[in-house]
Amino acid sequence: MNQEDYFKRMITRRSYEEVLEKAKKILCIQPHADDADFGAGGTIAKLTRKGCEVVYVTLTDDRVGTFKQDLWPEKLAIIRVKEQERAAEILGVKRLIWLNYRDSELYPSLELRGKLIRLIREIRPDVVMTNDPWLPYEVHPDHRYTGLMAAEAVLFSPFPHVNPEHIREGLKPFYVPHICFFFTHRPNTYIDISETINLKIKAILAHKTQIEDAERVSSLLRAYGKEVGKNIGVDYAEAFKILTPRHLHVNPFTENL
Ligand SMILES: [Zn+2]
Question: What distance in angstroms lies between residue 161's CA and the mean position of ligand 1's atoms?
C-alpha cells in the first residue's frame, strides 16, 4: 500500500462488517458477566454458528451486582459464574476466563494490562471485542477501564519489549488486526442479528439475578435491536465501532470513523 492509500485508510469512515463475518477467533474482554451478551450476543451467536471460536474474559467477579442486602457478595459471585456459563452455552461460547478483580473497583494497572497482553499472545485472535471506553457519560469504572485496558493491550501486544517475560517464556508478539467496541455511541458497523435475536434474549435471561421482569427485558431488547436494525434495513441488528490498532494512537480522525 502506498503512502497516499495508507493515509486515506486512516482517515476514511467505512464499515467493517466482513471483519466480523470472516473472523475465526474472537477474544471478548468484558467487565462483568452479561456485558458481551447484552452488547454483542446476537452477533456472537451468529459467528459461533459459522464456526468462529469466541473466548470470554471477564475482568471482575460481579459480587456487588444486586440491590438485595441479604444476598452475600461471595455467594453472588459464584451464582454469576453459573449464569454466564449457561448464557455462553446458549451463544456457543466454549471458553470462559475469569480474572476476578473486585466488582466496582477496577482501575487501570500494568498488572492487568500485562495479563491481557499475555492472553492476546496466547490466543492470537483475529478480533478483540470489548466495550467502548469512550462512551460519553459512562461512569462505571469497570466499564471505562475494561475497554481502555483491552485497547492498550491491543496496541502493545506486538511490541516484544512490552512484557518481555512473555517472550522469554516462548510466546510471540502478536498484532491483533482489529478491535471491535460494543456499547458505542459512534458505530461504523452494523450486524444483522434477525436470526439470532431469540438466542440473544435467551442468553440474557439466563442471567437470572440481573433480571427482575423477563418479559419487560425481552421487549426492551427487541425494541433496541429493531431501532439499530433500521440503520441497515433489517429486522434486528447490533452496532459496533471497529478499528485497527493504528487508529488507536495519535489519530484525530478516529472519533468520526
Ligand atoms: Zn457491566
Answer: 32
